[in-house]
Structures are given as C-alpha cells and as structure tokens.
Amino acid sequence: MSLVVTDTLADERVEFTADGDVTLYVCGLTVSDDPHLGHARLWFHADVLHRWLEHIGYDVRHVENVTDVNEKITARVGERDDWSEERDVAAAFTATTFDAMRGLNLLRAEVYPRVTEHVPEIRELVETLIEKGYAYESNGSVYFDVTTFAEYGKLSNQNVADLEAQGEPDERSEKRNPADFALWKADGVSETAAREHAKHDHGAETPTGETWPSPWGDGRPGWHVECSAMSTTHLGDTLDIHMGGRDLVFPHHENEIAQSEAATGERFARHWLHVGLLAMDGEKMSSSIGNFWTVPDALDELGVNVIRTFYAGAAYRSEQALTEGTIAEAEERWERLSRTYDRAVAALDSVDARAKAEDGDLREAVTDARDDFAAAMNDDLNLREATAALLELTDAVNRHVDAVDADADDEATNEAAYDYRGLREAVEAFAELGGDVLGLQFEAESDGEVELAGELVELILDVREAEREAGNYERADDLRDALRDVGVEIEDGPDGATYRFE
RNA sequence: GCCAAGGUGGCAGAGUCUGGUCAGACGCAGCGGCCUGCAGAGCCGCCCAACGCCGGUUCAAAUCCGGCCCUUGGCUCCA
C-alpha cells in the first residue's frame, strides 16, 4: 500500500514516490505579526505528513523558510521602542513563531532559512536569470519576463494573454509586460507601501527598510525569489514535495516555478501539495482581515491536543470551518481519546492484568485500528478517517474494561482479569499512531506543580468522601462543583472518586 | 471579468479520480435505556434525515457530460 496525494500541478491524485530521502519544502510565513491558527493549519499538516513519511520508512529533510524581509515588517518599525529597524521587528515575530511551533508539538525542521541570510544566493539566481535571457534590468529593478517561459501559468492554469489583458501598462511602464514580476526592487520600501501597511502613526519618519548592494544598485529582493533561492540552496534543484497554503498557488508558487525552472532547467518540485484555508465565519482567517486567533492565545485556551485534534478533523486539501461547534467537537474527541488511553494504562498496569486473559474482540480491534489508520493515511492523508480508527479502538478498550469491571463486581464469578497483551497492544497503538504520527500527547508531564496539585485534590476528595458517608450530599456536590470551576473534573466510581485536570 | 476550490443530514465531514457494493465510518448536538444518591464518564439503542438547480449519457449517476445559480480563495501583502 503506498501513499497517494493530491497534486495541484498534475491536478489529480498521484502516487507519491521518492528515492531514499524525501525533501520537503514548506512555504513558511512572513514574520510581520503573531502567527495565527490559519498559519498553524499548514504547519500541522506539513508536520503530520513529515511524521507519516517517517513512519512508513522515509528519511525526511524538512525545510521551512522564514520571510523576514517584507514591507509589512518595515511598516511596523517604531511601533515599539526597541523596534528601530526592520530586523528588530522580524526578530520579535520570528521568536514568537518558534515558540508557537514548539507549543504545537511540531517536529523541528532541518533548517528554518531566513531571507536576510540568503541575499547572496538570491543575487546569484537573479544574475543567472538575466544571463539566460529570462529577466531584465529596468531602472535598478529586475523583472522576470513571463513571455520567455513557455510554461508560465501551468500550476494555476492561467494564460499569459489573460493576465496581460488585466494589467495596466501605464502604471507599470518599468516592465515589458504587465504580468512580469519583480526579482529585485530598486531602493527601499516606498513611502506609499509603508503607509498602506502601517498600524500606527510614524510621525515625520517613514521607514524604508533594509537595502542590500547589487549589480543593479542598492535594493531589496522581490517577493517570490526568496523561496526559490532558499529551497534550492538547502534541498537541491528538485524538491520531492513543495507544500503551502492554497492562497499561494498564484502568483507565488507559479512564479517560483518559473524562476527556478528557468534558472536550473530542472523540474522544480515533483509534488505540489496545497492546504485549504481555515475559515472563520465563512471567511479566510487572515492577519489583514483581523479575524484571527493567535497561536499563543489558542494554546492557552485550548491546549495543543485539542488544536491538533481539531486540525485532524478535516482533510488538508479541504477548507475547514472554525466555529464554537467545531472546536467543541474537537475537545470532545480529544477527551475521549485521552480518557480511554488513561483508562487502558491504568488497567494494563493493575494487578488484574493477566498473561492468560484474552479478549479476542479487543485484539482484533487493535489490528483493525492499525489497518484502518494506515489505509486512511495512505489515502491522501485522510486524517479524520485515521482519527476515527483510533476512536473505534477506544470503543473496544472501554467495552473490555467495562466487561471485566462488571465481572469483578459479580461475587459469583470473581475471576475477571484484564487482557494484558491486548491492552498493551492498544496502548502502543495509541502511542504510535495518535502520539508519534498525529503528534498528540497522551501523558501529561508530572512536574512538581502537577504533583502538588494532585495531592491537594486528593485531600479535598477525602473530605468530600467523609461528607458523602455522612449523607451530606449537598456539601459533597458543592465541593465537586468548586473543583470543576478550577478545572478539576471529578468522577465517582465503584472504587472511590477519580479526578483529572481539564 | 479571468483562474481555482467548493455546494452532501440539526452541525461537522468522507465518498467524486476508478458509475452499481453508498447515500458509509468516526464525532458533535438531540432523544431513550443500562449504570449512578445525583452528575459525569462508559456501554447499548434511536435520530424514520441530506447528494445546489436544470438537462443529458447509461440498465444504473453524489460520481461522467453540458448549462445555470450560489459560496470561498487568487488575480495586490498573504499559509
């Protein structure tokens, strides 16, 4: 069984192939603001792809760029006292981005290249394109001539004539064709561009951003070259997978193909994967629209596991809706997985788990879950179906534990035992598939604070138990409610109360 | 206007490539039962219900073809 993915360039589902190492390039973000859940959706799907490829035996070389040169970054210079240059702003948001990535439990990329580190490579790429006749200099800027690249438009099905018809030649007199795009822009950020993106009043000073010397004079890299230069530098001329948001298909990725293939003469990417948008109230979550939920805020409010379970609720290539309802659903799905995992571990580690106990249904359910999970993942990374395989396993685990508990309560039989091997296999399946592949974290860390909190909760539960024995149920219920208010969920069972931190 | 992705039950979301085995699985919400002092969790059952519209091809269409309507994205910084 092999992995099938939906390839934007081929415009169909294709079998994924790679020789040895897989090179994966993820079109990262521009660090002009805090990352939001829309950005994180791409990160998550790239991360799960990375994890799944490793799971099925590939070595993955994952490179994800950080665009730290951009007029939106420049526009924020001076917004804070310590933001006196473009790179100060970029550094601040790069830091929050890395924090967010760690918080989301993403595997680290091999490198996170920045534009500011790769200006020499960008200049070389531009020079090559000029030498080969694909690009031309004009007033200190350099443009890619789209008419020289016969396949221009092949990714997004644009045709150059249509694009030309849309352009306004008067305004872009610097260009040969309206659809030509900049590889190198003369001088710094223009005053109008900076003002357009500014979120505050700069007073008399309008920031112009950093410039670098070049054969065409001082200037800044264009908006698309950076990805071509950085991906090629770190992963070679042909990438196995190029991944990005669907909103980048045109012009960004179209232009990357043109630049890269014109320069190297090689195919730029074997597979193009595009992640659908995250829609909030029917509209794209976007920094510019302002309808976003930042990753740090979402991590505080929901936690990494709920966020990841949420993303796993829809296919990467589909649009996904973020609403109170879909978040609530993700919370419930995660809780169910996590509770069942805890329950399975507790039964597995108890003295009642025996070598010779055997529940055929449970063992069969583990095999089915693994098979279904793999089939779903290989089928264009159908994460909801893969998650469903794990949820079906929770059903089997709960049935097994329920049945044994019921037998144990029955004085007549009194020989109930948990199926040790079956539970062990179930726990391993949760850990490998839910943990390693989906990146969910089943085991809570038990640092000092958590331990202390646990001891305090136990203490309160003892008090509550005494109240219950005395028949003071109202008091007992008050205690349970009070604990819930601070995030501790109490569950009464046959062997006393248990608790979990929400 | 041009290009692209979509429109499936109360919600959410597969299935479309490769027509029949599908209107599925998981879940959320809702309802009933078991269990429980109550609640929660868990288990069992129910939810008699949906393929945007109009044509066409076919023995057979959610799936293929044509037309139309609507939503979203891109064409300008964007994941």
From TrEMBL:
What are the leading ranks of the lineage?
Answer: Archaea, Methanobacteriati, Methanobacteriota, Stenosarchaea group, Halobacteria
Reaction catalysed by this chain?
A: tRNA(Cys) + L-cysteine + ATP = L-cysteinyl-tRNA(Cys) + AMP + diphosphate
UniProt-annotated location(s): Cytoplasm
Q: Which organism is it from?
A: Halorubrum aidingense JCM 13560
Could you name the domain of life of the organism this protein comes from? Archaea
* Segments for region (Disordered): 193-216
Q: Where does ATP bind?
A: S287
Q: What is this protein called?
A: Cysteine--tRNA ligase
Q: Where is the Cysteinyl-tRNA synthetase class Ia DALR domain?
A: 372-452
What cofactor does this chain's UniProt record say it requires?
Zn(2+)
Under the cellular component aspect of Gene Ontology, which terms does the record hold? cytoplasm
Enzyme Commission designation: 6.1.1.16
